[in-house]
Amino acid sequence: MYSRFLVSALFAGATAGLIAGILQLIFVQPVLLHAELYESGQLVHFGAEAVTAHPDLPGFDVMRDGLSLIFTMLTYTGYALIMIALMGIAEDRGAVIDGRTGLIWGVAGFVVFHLAPGVSLAPEVPGVAAADVTARQIWWFATVGAAAVALWLVAFGTTWMVWGVAAVLLAAPHLIGAPEPDVLVGPVPTEIGALFAARAFGVGLAAWVLLGSFAGYFWQREGVADTSTASA
Amino acid sequence: MTTVTQAQSRIRILPAFFALALGFGVIALTGHVQAAALHDAAHDVRHATGFPCH
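ok -> structure tokens follow
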């Protein structure tokens, strides 16, 4: 049973992570590199002269981008482990888990890990002002935890009271508020920051939907393998 | 039949929690530990994934 969890999470996480990493390098990385030109002072916004919106960006960097691919695959394998653990528990309670229902799990995972914390703590382009990192991490974990519980209650709850609790859990972190910087000193143009957040969310959603579907598919496939080994 | 299902559930809950803990460990490592080497290697991923960075 341990191997069913580990093997299906590894397959789903590595595959979705590889695709996520490639999407990130194509769509997010150029925006990030553009922002770094302002972070490092190579480009200056709000100066006397207009600045080109299409500067020359460094190309593919084997070391840096290779590490990004590896860490994206690792991160999505972490997500897959968490999602497949919950899929296993849900299946015990009667839920159908396969590649198709996995799509919904993927959307839910995106909401829990990207959208819920990102609504108040937007994906940060390099160079923006931000509050203390520890405070933001605590808020991030609390928000992700609350959203995870909330979506479980939405999916498997059966009464309005349970759904009400879910709504409160989803809203509470944002009503309390995320840690914010005291002053706004970021040198990056707002257009770049907004595009970065939008791209990060878009790539995140695509990757999570794939992850959910792969996780459901491999979980079911490994289950069939488990049963045939047991009966053989 | 019921006994079989119950036995299966009991077997499944432990590996599920094991996978859950391992998953959170991996996320914490790739996304949140601030050690310099790890931070630098995962820098672009952390920004793109919406983890708090720096």
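Chain A has two domains: 1-127+189-231, 129-185.
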